[in-house]
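in:
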């Protein structure tokens, strides 16, 4: 997966202010439309002192058209600036699969040692379910909430069944990205349904998520873009001969039990896996100590974030700020007075 840079936060805040202004203007326009449908709309408008209705309607129509054009421009700009920096990951934890991938990687490296830098590192093997852009801590929290809301949809799709993903064979994307293929079967349809539900859930939260290309689940084991200097040395594609012995190899099955919200840019964990913001546990696999700890930490984190948000809102209130300034001023006055008294008292002692 590429590691695109995240954008700034200020532009998002400006868009929120602009969006609030546009919503207010739309509300005023809708209110005027509603008045025409009221019972008293049949009364002669001239009697009420309103004499320029056609002109008003024309102006309102032009204003609504302008707002619509502005919204389209902003939407296009937002899509143009879309650079995913987070993703939903299904971690690959089956030792048989990871061991088979390491054997494959070593076999390729033996044929061309330069390709060692293009290999996916240990601990980070995964299937990407969805990519998205989260540009602030608030957006990350919204993403965490969307992930939690996704769980019942997944349970409905699986209907109590365990999702098992069998991996067999090798393929590439344009001879630039090498991956282990997901074998055909009913599990593919289930995975596609989950991916679509995830995309819908996150987009409904206002998060930019998904890609233009269709979802193709795959397990990446190497990527030439990880070592751009290879092109200068003449390595422009992955030679199919490097992996021909594994073209139909069975790597094993992964029993899906967890989906993580991961960062592409933050520092990876000590085990090589991506920085994980939150997780949901699915399927029938017994919940381990790590899952229990993560769930408890997540609940505590969300509670603290909620309290911090309430404190911020309280501090932003004018009456709170006025009270703080007043108490600080009074506190300084008392301290100055006390210091003055202490000086006078010391003077009298000497």
């Amino acid at each position: 997966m590429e590691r695109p840079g995240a954008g700034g936060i200020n532009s998002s805040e400006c868009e929120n202010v602009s969006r609030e202004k546009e919503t207010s203007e739309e509300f005023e326009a809708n209110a005027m439309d509603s008045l025409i449908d009221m019972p008293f709309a049949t009364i002669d408008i001239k009697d009420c002192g309103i004499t320029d209705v056609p002109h008003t309607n024309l102006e309102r129509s032009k204003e609504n058209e302008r707002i619509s054009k502005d919204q389209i421009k902003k939407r296009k700009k937002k899509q143009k600036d879309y650079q995913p920096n987070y993703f939903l990951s299904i971690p690959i934890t089956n030792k048989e699969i990871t061991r088979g991938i390491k054997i494959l990687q070593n076999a390729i490296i033996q044929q061309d040692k330069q390709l060692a830098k293009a290999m996916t590192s240990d601990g980070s093997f995964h299937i990407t379910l969805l990519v998205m852009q989260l540009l602030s801590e608030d957006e990350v929290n919204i993403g965490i909430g969307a992930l939690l809301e996704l769980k019942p949809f997944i349970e409905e799709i699986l209907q109590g069944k365990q999702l098992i993903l069998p991996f067999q064979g090798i393929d590439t994307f344009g001879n630039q990205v090498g991956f282990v293929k997901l074998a055909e079967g009913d599990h593919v349809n289930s995975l596609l349904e989950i991916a679509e539900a995830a995309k819908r859930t996150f987009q409904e939260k206002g998060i930019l998520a998904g890609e233009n290309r269709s979802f193709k689940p795959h397990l990446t084991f190497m990527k030439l873009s990880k070592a751009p200097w290879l092109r200068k040395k003449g390595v422009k594609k992955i030679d199919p001969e490097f992996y021909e012995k594994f073209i139909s190899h069975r790597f094993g099955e992964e029993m899906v039990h967890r989906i993580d919200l991961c960062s592409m840019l933050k520092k990876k964990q000590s085990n090589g896996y991506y920085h994980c913001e939150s997780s949901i546990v699915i399927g029938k696999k017994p919940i381990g100590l790590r899952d229990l700890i993560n769930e408890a930490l997540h609940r505590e984190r969300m509670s603290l974030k909620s309290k911090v948000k309430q404190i911020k809102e309280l501090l932003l209130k004018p009456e709170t700020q006025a009270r703080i300034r007043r108490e600080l001023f009074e506190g300084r006055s008392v301290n100055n007075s006390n210091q003055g008294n202490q000086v006078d008292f010391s003077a009298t002692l000497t």
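note: Residues 28 and 60 are 10 Å apart (CA to CA).
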